Amino acid sequence: MNKICELFGIKYPIIQGGMIWCSGWELASAVSNAGGLGLIGAGSMHPEILRDHIRKTQKATDKVFGVNLPLLYPQIDELIQIIIEEKLPVVFTSAGNPAKYTSHLKAHGIKVAHVIANKKFALKCVDAGVDAIVAEGFEAGGHNGFEETTTMTLIPLIRNTVDIPLIAAGGIACGKSMLAAMALGADGVQVGSRFVASIESSAHVNFKQKVIEAKEGDTELMLKKIVPVRLLKNTFYQEIKSLENERAGISQLIGHLGKGRAKKGMFEGDLTEGELEIGQVSANIDSILSVAEIVRNMIEEYREQLKRLPQF
Amino acid sequence: MNKICELFGIKYPIIQGGMIWCSGWELASAVSNAGGLGLIGAGSMHPEILRDHIRKTQKATDKVFGVNLPLLYPQIDELIQIIIEEKLPVVFTSAGNPAKYTSHLKAHGIKVAHVIANKKFALKCVDAGVDAIVAEGFEAGGHNGFEETTTMTLIPLIRNTVDIPLIAAGGIACGKSMLAAMALGADGVQVGSRFVASIESSAHVNFKQKVIEAKEGDTELMLKKIVPVRLLKNTFYQEIKSLENERAGISQLIGHLGKGRAKKGMFEGDLTEGELEIGQVSANIDSILSVAEIVRNMIEEYREQLKRLPQF
Asked: Of the candidates B174, B303, B310, which has its C-beta nearest A156's C-beta?
């Protein structure tokens, strides 16, 4: 049996990326109902909002689902307490050291996956005892690694370094790329951008529309001086670009970012001044579909493509 | 039968990237003898040197081989004349408009493939009547596209745009990544960095050693103001990086580049002041092997990995 399906008790090894402002209870429950693993993106939620989303997801599906937890979140201890109280079975952690919370979560029977973008952190994950690693390539949306290693290069590198279950992320939005990820040595895939452009995602409709209109070259990895983040090009992006071209310092960049930019862009639909985080693969996405259709299409294309692979 | 094998009359759809200073007659003939398609990298050759390499390759193999021709080469017409005189069956063109020479080459019975990094040029290739497209991702070594689209994103995008035979390039150095490229919809792969670190490549041994020592994050896409090129980090790279950070103009950058940097680095082995072009996947390469071993390992790993792919 597939290691990721076995680990989480799911039908298909398709993990929905837990993305801020885009993945609430509707998306998470729809993905779990479709046979994948839905994740509530806690990074944009106050603790009691998270509890509410967990309870709504529990009502909307009898399948397993989890929470994505960026470890830099200021109220992290409160979020973890809620996750334990609500008896969530799965947590995906990111943006931090996996050594910090893994054993605590595991002591409560929670399966832990951690997101990394290089070999060093893959090894840290193994030391920390995580159950699975998500290895995320340069093409992924949102926060990203400094090395700029792409999925094609990263997955074989990590596969040849660690033995634990491995989930590929970055550039995966169709059955072809899912199959490619498995060929590279992954046991499963994490899909972000494709689920942003779903009916059930909590992204603002303006943002969803912008995602399906995006073409190649319409995203860029920015803010490399702080934490690299892949942005869809808009006025806000241009402002950051200008500041970076003028060699603005970190404090000036943080000052311009201000607060609430991501909410403004992705949740409130301000396509001009909001921060729009999305993957390069948005260039390959041209329709807003239901989660059920997305998963069905992905599995069908996977099957067809698998049959087409030549033997030598 | 596989389209690329059929088109070129080869056993495995493995094309050796025609790389300046690294791919002379020894590499090209070794790859063709191993069942792939060897390409002489004409971009670093004076016309009569190219003729010499063609004749030596003809002596060293009875298999088909070709030439890679960067269209920006100053003595391009002389090179093309030699290719026609020597009755070469295959030309891979890059760095230019495929409309310019394709029909001329095809009128002489030559099969033409052209290297692109975006959809616009893929469509131009179809209009120009090329026989195959090489789609090259951001992770590839040497010259690269402005859009920074990775192989994982680019191949399905191009596959869904054009029907002609498609060769994936960028990040492919093992059987896993070869299989992944085919899963993404490619009919074949172009392999560069892995063949640089072969016994038969004409790269200086210092450079080969540096390639196998390279770790993740050791290459970066530079000179985006002129033509993006992926470089291995060394003193020369640091100098370019400093100039770019100081917002140097194009003429200043070109002035610093000067002449002969690539030869100095890759052919003469000056790892300090020379230009070292290599792919991100150098992080995954840790041995200098014979071409026969490289191809054999790649095909063996491809077969093993194909058997391992899960069905859903």
From this structure: B174
